[in-house]
Amino acid sequence: MLLFSYAYRSLLARSRANAISVLSVALFVAGGMLGLAYYLSLRSMVLSVPSENIVVVAKGAFAEIDSNLNLESARKVLVLEGVKSEGGAPLAARELVSRVWVTKEGAGHYEQPILIRGIDDHSLKVHHITLLQGAPPRPGTLEVIIGRRVAQQHDYLTVGYELAMPAGPAKIVGIFGSDGGPFESEVWTPREALELHRNMKGSSSLTLVADSAARVPELVDKINASKDLACQAASVAQFRADGAGIDTIARTVLVLLIVLSVVATFAITTTMNAAVAIRIPELAALAAIGIRRGALGRIVLAEAVLLAGCGTIVGALASALAVRQLGYITIGNPVELAMSPIVLVAGIVLGLLVGVIGSIAPVIQVRRLGILEGLR
């Protein structure tokens, strides 16, 4: 306790000089926590899918919206061995994906367009969709249901509201959830209705259910290796991960952490080296009256940890406030940020670790301190 009390008083005497170190650590912790929160939230959203689901798109397509799936190829895929059947028919959903604007009348500007999915009778079951309010859209109508995230971002989109669509007003009849997945950022309507809005027939993708998760790689390989099918397949989780660039984002967050940690460590090392240089006579005098150099080194370490701790607290509070204010980050699909315990613990550990690493050189200098040289 005496160790930290002495270190605390020493830091107060140099409060202005220590501010830059605290700010550097705060920037490191806040940036690292925000980057990690975004990555974990995106990963959770993208990978929250049934493990037995496979998506089939046109060959060469990188996303459903860019795909124009050949109907004949879709029919051939459905009869492959390993596709789950229900009631004597393959359990699959053939869907059409486009974009729609959901601008409120009289708003005077356009909101960012969101995905609209033309679904079939099996879509809700295939994708494990839960209706939170209302009912599913009826076949042969222009009715729509909207994802939970869409409803949160556009508070005027409620059950009963009518969207202005090319083929006529589309009434919202329900709000659905998909365990936090990307579907919650979409509008769904019967596929025939979307074909009518677009004045064309077709489909973007076919999502089928395998007999089991173990059959997924076999089915994916069979579809991709076939020369008779003008399509390609992947597990839904892998397809989403590739489309969202999960690996690229992970590398970006890692680079961000490394750069910010170097800056924060350099700031603490510079501050502590300067503090030790100024206090050489004081530290030498303490050593002369019998205080061991190891204890003096621990004092320097305690000062660095206290500096890092202050910066960590400031950075953690700043990142929590930023998450609360931002709510969503829209890069492609909107990602709902969440400050999970993992992110908080990681931020605290990394912040304190920077303090420890930044104190190594000053601690070594103090432990090698010569009493006579220091008192001159």
How would you characterize this protein structure?
With 376 residues, this protein is an alpha+beta fold. It has two domains: 2-47 and 246-375, no CATH class; 53-209, no CATH class. The protein is built from 14 helices and 14 strands. The strands form three sheets. Strands 1, 4, 5, 6, 7, 8, 9, 10, 11 and 12 form a ten-stranded mixed sheet that branches. The protein has a two-stranded antiparallel sheet with strand order 2-3. Strand 8 (162-163) and strand 9 (170-177) form a beta hairpin. The two termini are 31 Å apart.
Name some characteristics of this structure:
ten-stranded mixed sheet; 14 strands; alpha+beta; 18% strand; 376 residues; single chain
Break the fold down into its secondary structure elements and pairings.
Layout: H1 2-12, H2 15-46, E1 53-58, H3 71-78, E2 85-86, E3 89-90, E4 92-100, E5 114-119, H4 123-126, E6 130-134, E7 144-147, H5 148-153, E8 162-163, E9 170-177, E10 186-190, H6 191-198, E11 205-209, H7 216-225, E12 231-235, H8 236-244, H9 246-278, H10 280-288, H11 293-326, E13 328-331, E14 333-336, H12 341-358, H13 360-367, H14 371-375
Parallel strand pairs: 5-10, 7-9
Antiparallel strand pairs: 1-11, 1-12, 2-3, 4-5, 4-11, 6-9, 7-10, 8-9, 13-14
Number of DSSP strands? 14
Radius of gyration from the CA trace?
A: 29 Å
Shape summary: elongated
Structural class: alpha+beta
Number of domains: 2
Discrete helix count: 14
Q: Would you identify the regions where 5 or more consecutive residues have pLDDT less than 50? A: 106-110
Our measurement of the CA-to-CA distance between the termini, rounded to an integer number of angstroms, reads 31 Å
The helix/strand series, from N terminus to C terminus, equals HHEHEEEEHEEHEEEHEHEHHHHEEHHH
